[in-house]
Amino acid sequence: MRNYLFGTGIIGAVTSGMTLLRSLRDETFTWRTALAWLSWGISLALAIGAIVDVRRARHGEPLPYDTPLSEKEQRKLARSGAAARR
User: If you compute the radius of gyration of the chain from its CA atoms, what whole number of angstroms results?
Assistant: First the structure.
């Protein structure tokens, strides 16, 4: 659980979210602020998606093809499957 909560992606998303919350007090809400919030939401979603992919890889579950871990994990699963057949 610690590996997931204290990952650099999540820490970065939380700190940028805190900065955005502080900026709401001092400034008016403009289109730039809306883009910053949209960017924060996308980065948070990507960080959570990376955590989910790492968890699936550790548990040996199949990964989607669009994940960066997919190619490595497919090779590892193929090697372990070949070793089990011998």
Answer: 19
